[in-house]
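#onboarding

Welcome to the new folks! Below is a worked example of what a typical request in this channel looks like: someone posts a single protein sequence, and someone else replies with the predicted structure as tokens. Don't worry about understanding the tokens yet, we'll cover that in week two.

Example request:
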Amino acid sequence: MNLDRSPELPSFDRALADHGKGALLRGAVTTLQVNIGKRCDLACHHCHVEAGPKRTEAMDRPTAERLVELLAGAPEVATLDITGGAPELNPNFRWLVTEARALGRQVIDRCNLTVLYEPGQEDTAEFLAESGAKIVASLPCYTKENVDAQRGKRVFTRSIEGLQQLNRLGYAQPGTGLELDLVYNPLGPSLPPAQSQLEQDYKQELRELFDIGFDRLITITNMPIKRFAHALARDGRDTEYMSLLVQSFNPDTVESLMCRSMVSVSWDGVLHDCDFHQILEIPLGNAKRTVWDIGSLSELRAGAIATAPHCYGCTAGSGSSCGGALA
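Example response:
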């Protein structure tokens, strides 16, 4: 079963209409999320990007420069959210961070933590702290067994060391302004638990066991696409998981969906409504455009947002976004 293309699945647009919600339209773009490459030192089971050490796709300098031009012309875009792969492995990563910070924008680095110990990345943590970048770090559990099962051997140990290093540099410490959030996603085909309670558990366990502090916990639902979808199909749980997402549709999440205030840019400059659409090559509003086809990000306001069955993942239960639960 192809979870995102099967005609057996109920239309997401129909679900919106059945709950009195109109077609999804974008408001003002306040976040520009950029995937600057698919190369990563890890190959996690849940990764919808299907990133890994052998991937070669990477954003080049002209595309990065065009992004900075668009940012400079759109003061309403307050945040540049940089992701990958492991974004730090792109040779233009530091330049992009520096230029965006010079424009006064918040920069988010979606860091897997283990990349901080890759060759050539020895001073990456110091660079991030000096630039004032916010770090959103992957840590799908506070136990070694669960993390290593999902992300690979020794990942938990290196992740803990990375968090301790970031704390020493001032991240999540009072008065520094250096923000550090953690990301949780379920190990298997289930919805995340309540974000607020899980955050308390994380803070207690990480403080008591490793003397680690962080600011917020972000819970994200696993999307039934790409690598995670393949794992579901292999285990015969694809229909079960998709049914869970459909049955858990929560109309209270719709107004806060991240696609309503964000535009996603792929490594080659193509525009998308979200990171998940990007990976499935669903273009912005179902009409392909690149960063060179628009004069300003403000042009994208009030544009139609493409939908697909995997959108149920963002509206299930408490909802899911790159910033965590929605309701």
